[in-house]
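Ticket #4471: structure output looks truncated?

Reporter: J.K.
Steps to reproduce: submitted the chain below (247 residues) through the standard prediction queue, then opened the result file.
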Amino acid sequence: MSKLNRIPLVLLMSSLAVGCAEQNIKPTTVLCPLLGATAGAGIAAAAGDDGDEAGPLAAGAVLGAVAGYFICREKPAEPVPATPAPAAAPAPAPAPVAPPKDSDGDGVIDPNDKCPGTPPGTKVNAEGCPEVGETLMSLQGVNFEFDSAKLMPESTAILDHAAEVLGQQAAVSVRIEGHTDSRGSDAYNLKLSDRRAKAVMDYLVGKGIDAGRLTSQGMGEGAPVAPNDSEANMAKNRRVDLVVTKN
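Returned output as attached by the reporter:
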């Protein structure tokens, strides 16, 4: 067989040998080895003699095919470095929890206080309501005309505040106690204080306080809070107290 006749066979064998080594056959897998085998066989033919020996020709074709395969072979893609995940933002600090509020300062927090607005210093039970027998308010400055149960104009602001407090203490009933200083006889002062206590009760009822929550009683001069030895002390003794009878 002449060199020219052996070339196609050698090219075919070389291409098949290299192409079959690649499982996924692509154009570059076959075409490049064919071109390489052709070039390799041509170089071997040009360099060889005119004999029938096919060895050099085949070897050139194979070497050319292998060279063409590796030249055109797809290079593996370089690994793309992973982009580091962004650092997580720090969790916001929890909002501070406000302590339970005790608006009237009686030691019972507002959600549990059934008697809000208790005056400062008043002894209360577990529900925030004044204890029976406690003085809810002592109305210093509630004045009356001389030898009379008629309220003086300056007393109304104090009594309006008392009505507001009683309005907040809906579960509380009180006894309105009238007190006098020591001037005058005991019997006279007892009657005068009784009339004045009733005058205060009528005023509070007129401000919307349920009369069923109120009683009145004159105490005369029998329960002073200061000695009756000066005008200032006697003014302290002329007072009206709101004493808790029910809660």
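Triage note (M.O.): checked the attachment and the full token line is present. The helical segments are 3-19, 27-47, 55-72, 156-168, 186-206, 231-237.
Status: closed, working as intended.
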